[in-house]
Amino acid sequence: MVFDVVTLFPSMFFGALEGGVLARARRDGKVALRVHDLRRFGVGPHRQVDDTPYGGGGGMVLRPEPFFDAIEWIRTQYPAKNERVLLLSPQGRKLNHGFARELADFDRVLLLSGRYEGVDERVREALVDEELSIGDMVLTGGELPALVLMDVVSRFVPGVLGREGTAEDDTFSDGLLEHPHYTRPARYRGYEVPEVLQSGDHGAIERWRRERAEEATRRKRPDLLQGESRGASREGGGNTGTD
Ligand code: SAM
Questions:
Q1: Residue 84, SS3 per DSSP
Q2: Does 145 qualify as catalytic in the annotation?
Q3: Each residue of 146-176: pLDDT tens digit?
Q4: Best mutation site among 7, 99, 138 for ligand 1, i.e. most ligand atoms within 8 A of its Cβ?
């Protein structure tokens, strides 16, 4: 799985993916990241990438030509059979477990990061398969959302997590939050690890985990237990709607 990212700030990606699971995934060739500087595709001798908005108003808008040229260049240099082009945008479909799992099926996810007032609308119309948001708030740019997306999607790429399929045990995978975890010591400052977890009785442990997962979901995220999103979670892998 390859992520191609087009951004005005390539340096924001250096370091961020150089530790932990994603660093290992990149070293092992399970996931690759190529960062493309939008400025390189800028217009004219000054490589202009933005301009004032038609109709007036404050702020700058990213011009269309650098995005068109960047995508054409990427496709020529690195052809991919099965790609998805996403524009990071607060107006997009909200990223969640199910959406991330869908994206992991593509050979390439091509991410376009906006800045300032955003990106000329013709980019969305002509080049973008889908707009993607990381939540109902506005960030200064698409770089942090792109990093979040790459982290989340990579967890679904086979072999990225130590034990294949582990992502399927996590919170949201079956429409529930995950059960609580404990490790050593068994007793700490008066707090004890539940006895059942130390019992070695796997059936009882499974039942306890299920009950605690349901209890945590009722308490923290009762919305997940409502019929429709629960069904969507099981089949599509999470609440795939826009809420
Ligand atoms: N004027 C735009 C609006 O009101 O919809 C917001 C532009 S925002 C300041 C600049 C860029 O940050 C966007 O083009 C987008 O790429 C990125 N961005 C901001 N919030 C985001 C979010 N919640 N999810 C994904 N990308 C976001």
A1: strand
A2: no
A3: 999 999 999 999 999 976 456 777 888 889 9
A4: 138
Would you give the DSSP letter of residue 4?
Answer: E
> Tell me: the pLDDT tens digits for 21-63?
999 999 999 999 999 999 999 999 999 999 999 999 999 999 9
The one-letter amino acid at 123 = V
Burial of 25 (0-12, 13-18, 19+ CB in 10 A): buried
pTM over 0.85: yes
Domain with CATH 1.10.1270.20 in the chain: 176-225
Is the domain covering 176-225 a CATH 1.10.357.160 domain? no
Which segments of the chain belong to CATH 3.40.1280.10? 2-154
User: Would you say 220 and 178 are in contact if contact means Cβ atoms under 8 Å apart?
Assistant: no
The CATH number, out of the four listed (3.30.559.30, 1.10.1040.10, 3.30.1490.20, 3.40.1280.10), of the domain defined by the range 2-154: 3.40.1280.10
Task: Single out the residue of 216, 127, 154 nearest to residue 2, CA to CA.
Answer: 154
> Is 221 an active-site residue?
no
How many whole angstroms separate alpha carbon 62 and alpha carbon 76? 23
* Sign of the dihedral defined by the CA atoms of residues 75, 36, 154, 242, in that order: negative
Catalytic residue among 18, 170, 195, 201: 170
Tell me how far the alpha carbon of residue 221 lies from the centroid of ligand 1, in angstroms: 27
